[in-house]
Each structure stands twice: as C-alpha cells, then as structure tokens.
C-alpha cells in the first residue's frame, strides 16, 4: 500500500492537470473504501495543487495545510538604504 501512496503523491507533484484530476478521484475512492485514512490523504496531498480539495474531502484540519508563501512584497514594504 505504501508504494501506491508514493505513486499517487508523485503523480500529484509532476502530473498534468487531467492526471491530477484522475488521481484525486482515485484517492477519494480509496478513502471511501477505508483503504486510506485522513492521515494518508494528508501525506499524499500536502504541498500539491490538490491539497485544498483533498483536505476538504477528508475533513482534515487547516493547521495541517502547507503555508503558502507569496513572492510579492507587501505594500509599503520598502527597503531603506543610505
């Protein structure tokens, strides 16, 4: 089962959008069949583009989500130099 989880995670990380959608559906099916629990789904999806969708599906707490970083500086965040 660990190999399947690893495979699903890899596809969520490097797959194209149709592949990610198909894998998301598979993960939900595994969860519905009690083959994956919430912790499994969190480990598979964390840090991927499907993280939000899968966290909502398994009702995972928000504090487990990856902190998303912004590449933009906040407004009024100016560097001062002499």
Show the helix and strand layout.
Blueprint: H1 2-14, H2 17-32, H3 38-45, H4 51-58
Helix pairs in contact: 1-2, 1-3, 2-4, 3-4
Task: Describe this entry's structure for a reader.
The structure is a single chain. The protein is mostly helical. Helix content is 55%, strand content 0%. It is built from four helices and no strands. The protein is globular and about 65 Å long. The mean pLDDT is 87.
Short description:
This protein has four helices and no strands. The protein has 82 residues and is mostly helical.
Helix content: 40-55%
In what range is the share of β-strand residues? Answer: under 5%
**Coarse morphology:** globular
How far is the first residue's CA from the last residue's CA? 59 Å
């Amino acid at each position: 089962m660990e190999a399947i989880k690893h495979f699903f995670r890899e596809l969520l990380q490097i797959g194209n959008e149709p592949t990610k959608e198909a894998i998301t559906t598979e993960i939900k099916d595994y969860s519905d069949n009690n083959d994956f629990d919430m912790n499994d789904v969190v480990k598979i999806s964390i840090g991927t583009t499907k993280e939000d969708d899968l966290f909502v599906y398994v009702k995972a707490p928000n504090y487990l989500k990856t902190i998303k970083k912004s590449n933009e500086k906040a407004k009024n965040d100016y560097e001062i130099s002499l």
